[in-house]
Write a structure and sequence with these properties.
The protein has a 5-stranded antiparallel β-sheet with strand order 1-5-4-7-8. Strands 2, 3, 6 and 9 form a 4-stranded mixed β-sheet that branches. The chain has one domain: Immunoglobulin-like (Sandwich), CATH 2.60.40.10. The chain has 2 helices and 9 strands, in the order E-H-E-E-E-H-E-E-E-E-E. The chain is mainly β. A hairpin with a 5-residue loop joins strand 2 and strand 3.
């Protein structure tokens, strides 16, 4: 499966944060994310799913998958995103580069032509628990070398919150 992606740069605050990055932080984010703005030869292929308490896997069927470089800004915000179970959208994204793609019906996805470096991969997965619609953010962190094809699992254990 080949998914195309378009880098998106938005300057705004992450959900749960009081203010957008100040000028010094914006400059640091720009510096740290600059190498990721180039097309590269690495790729990520993976599957997004939750693990139910009974061990069953709940795939991220047709869910949007998000990819962002690991920067000091992202490192400080991803734990908040996971805790809040809400991936920043639109103007609520951190001040850095984000790529998106969509998983297939089994939760499989891919990103291609990536620059080497370290990335966060996130996915908000919807499921039904006791007749109630719920969502949980699954994520992983991956380091890519030039030309590497990384196979990742974007997952989260339910009930371990």
């Amino acid at each position: 499966m080949r998914n195309t992606f378009v880098p998106i740069l938005l300057l705004a605050a992450v959900v749960g944060c009081a203010a957008k990055p100040n000028r010094v932080q914006e400059e640091l984010i720009e510096q740290q994310s600059s190498p990721y703005r180039q097309r590269g030869t690495a790729s990520i292929a993976g599957r997004a799913f939750l693990i139910a308490p009974d061990g069953r896997q709940i795939p991220g069927r047709s869910e949007e998958i998000f990819l962002t470089p690991v920067t000091s800004w992202a490192e400080s915000r991803v734990p908040e995103v996971v805790k809040a179970n809400k991936i920043p959208m639109g103007d609520d994204r951190a001040a850095q580069v984000w790529w998106t793609t969509r998983a297939d019906t089994t939760g499989d996805f891919s990103f291609e032509e990536l620059a080497p470096g370290e990335y966060f991969v996130l996915c908000s997965i919807s499921f039904n628990a006791g007749g109630q619609a719920m969502e949980r953010v699954a994520y992983t962190r991956v380091m890519l070398a030039p030309g590497q094809v990384a196979d990742v699992q974007v997952t989260r254990q339910l009930g371990a919150e």
